[in-house]
Amino acid sequence: MRLAVFASGRGSNFKALVDARRDGRLPEAEFVLCFSDKTNAPVLDIAREAGIETLHFSPKDFASREEYEKAVLKHLEAEKIEGICLAGYMRLVGSTLLEAFPNRILNIHPALLPSFPGLHGQRDALEYGAKVSGCTVHFVDGGVDTGPIVVQRAVPVLDDDTEETLAARIVEQEHQAYPEAVDLLSRGLLRIEGRRVVRLRSAD
Ligand code: GAR
Question: Is 108 in the pocket of ligand 1 (CB under 6 A)?
């Protein structure tokens, strides 16, 4: 499966995916393109070092989200991309990309959805007083972190946690959960039944 990774920042999840591919843990997933909405995102350097094509567009250079996504889509089609992994991509995906990749876009979120969606999953769980948090890999739909859940991993929230220490504990689990979910998707082992994602034993 030819995949594009969309990321806005640091890129540790992108690196975890590329490392998993290199280690033979993602036999059917090929990371063809790293796209960023931020020109200077460190993730782009990680991609260049890994020999993966990079692309960046700034949404503010386009009249609308539709125009921006159409420009991205043109490149995805040229590269015959079959699926997208959002890895710290800090903006909503619009209908242009959703319609081009139905049930083919995954996102990783730093909380146990449906709790604490949005931009600050770690901080929101901490401030709420949750005793357990974690990460969620889910399919992307038109809502904010609302799509069917593929993989979740939990971590404790400790009394002396700060947003940073909790985020560090969660991101360790993200680096395990995302390759696991991408492996299942790329091997055709996921079936969506309503809100539930069922794992198949072998590709039907
Ligand atoms: C990750 O913790 C990811 O779950 C989160 O951004 C971080 C990106 O880190 N994503 C979101 O909050 C999406 N709403 P990374 O750039 O090191 O992969």
Answer: yes
